[in-house]
Amino acid sequence: MSAAPWTSGNQFATTTIPALLIERVKNDADANAFFQRRAGAWVPTTWKGYANAVCSVSAALGAAGVARGDRIAIMGDVSQEWLIADMATICSGAVTVGVYFTASVEEVRYYLEDSGATLAFAGSAEQLRVMKAADTSSRLLKIVVLDPDWKRSPDETGMNVVSLAEFASHFDGDEVAYLREQSELARPTDLVSLGYTSGTTGAPKGAMLTHVSMLAGAFTWPTFCPAILSEPQRMVIHLPLSHTVARIQATTLPLIAKTVPYFVDVSADFAKCIQEVRPTSYMAPPRFYQKFATQIINHVNGSSEAERRNYTLALGIAREVLADRQDAGTGDPFKEQLYAICREHVFKPLLARIGFDDLRYPYTASAPVPPEVVTLFQLWGVNLKENYGQTEMVGGNLAQVTDWSRPGNSGVPLDDPAWETRVLPDGEMIVRGPGLFIGYWNKEAETKAALRDGWLYTGDIVDVGADGSYKLIDRKKELINTAAGKSISPVQVENELRQSPYITEALVIGEGRKYLTALIEVDGTLAMDWARTHDPSVTQYADLASSQPVIDLIREEVEKANARLARAEQIKAFRIFPEELTPENGVMTATRKKRRKALMARYAHIIAGLYDDAEEQLIKEQLVGSGTAASVHRQ
């Protein structure tokens, strides 16, 4: 690959995705563009092979009647076929509508109808079933199945369903010439994608993304991690490709950086895939890091006494070194030498068990991360950093850039004059830059509320520290106003609760109430392991909610959090969720963001039991008895 010419997001105002694909094919035709795990082996595809597949599908889209600007839905598991369908759609001048592979029939129907998609790709037989059931208006000209092992069932004869192999035959022409022809028809400001937001409050909104949005947004990554422009990087792709972060990792970042995506085999053990690839760069929500940390801790706890003793000694040295690095910016040379030995002989073998022994550039975003998780990985020698972004800005505008950064903040604004970040008097952060979306599809009012004078109003309340770091405090519209008139951030309280290793998620309640309460999701693995030695009656996750020893354990964790909170923010009562929170039961998005309204509705009967409404009920009874407030006064 030729030396990267990129220095600022502003440079992408004059280019397009097909144009950059041409450059990669011309300069790196025989280099590996990506790997796909199939039947236990990692199978590479070169840039020339990638381009050929893209041209094949793009030409087939044109032959099927797809015109520039048409919307094409892609619903599928993580795979190279998803990537090829996406890139082919973009090169054809059409618009990708990413659909989460776990979406229900109702959700898919909404995406199809809202976007007006005319053709769809379905990843598997199950996703084909969902897609067909969702297409009640019969708008789809054709549904193409991406799974190379898919076989047509007898009842699909004569229908508009075809395999990818049937749809797109091998491309025999000149890939560069074909892509150049398509590139000449494209403009940087053309729409290439509808990135649907997670819909935590109301129906999902389709963020309209252009070539500039996708490329300038992707370039925010090397802006806070310049090494990926010059050093080859192994990057595991396992998040849904309809998610903006995964989409950047797979589709646009490899066009401008030296990242090589590795697509996991959904039928294989995810942890095994990570171990095999040993990623050098990795981005994932906090929950994944928490699970990886738990795996290591469980292994240490099950090791020999000598191994546990060595681990404890190494951890003590690591604590001193990390404290020196964070306080003074550098460690004591002698301690650093001791730590290097600990890192090589104690921590590195443990990290190898989860495939993190060569991980150089780890990041986490999309949700608050418990500080203990970050600190633990730092002690093990993994330089985990936090950052912040939204679908509406494609990439991110905040990132921790200092090595061994203290946890608890999202970093500082990007060092790129193309991007600006400001904080309004009410604490809301607003952002301006070339990677922003251009509005919400078919939603003019929501667009006007989010985009004003070129600024994206993020809806996130932030606090800027003395060192210039930004800490997310809350969503602007998610403040709780208690009956006592206190305005409280539920997210801040939930973050304190989630510092416990036993608590993976929490829902704080208190709007119009006298005090705060919480519903708590416990870590299934840790809680079940703990319960095995403390409550033999616990045999499944559902038993945890009624186990008195488990309740007592979580009460202690809640009390620890309360000790760090102001009096009005403290949790007075709690219950444990009787089930794990998942997108399938409608209370979480595909990226594990809470749907507060759905949670409140689904567990209303549990929430009701958290409050003593005797006073309120007494007043109601008085009013019902005589029909007027005056009669209450006479009593």
From TrEMBL:
Record's protein name: AMP-dependent synthetase and ligase
Coiled-coil segments on the chain, per record: none
AMP-dependent synthetase/ligase domain residues: 24-441
Superkingdom of the source species: Bacteria
GO CC term, one of those recorded: membrane
Any one GO MF annotation of this record: long-chain fatty acid-CoA ligase activity
Keywords, comma-separated and alphabetical: Fatty acid metabolism, Ligase, Lipid metabolism
Alphabetized PANTHER family for the sequence: AMP-DEPENDENT SYNTHETASE_LIGASE DOMAIN-CONTAINING PROTEIN, LONG-CHAIN-FATTY-ACID--COA LIGASE
Key word Flavoprotein present: no
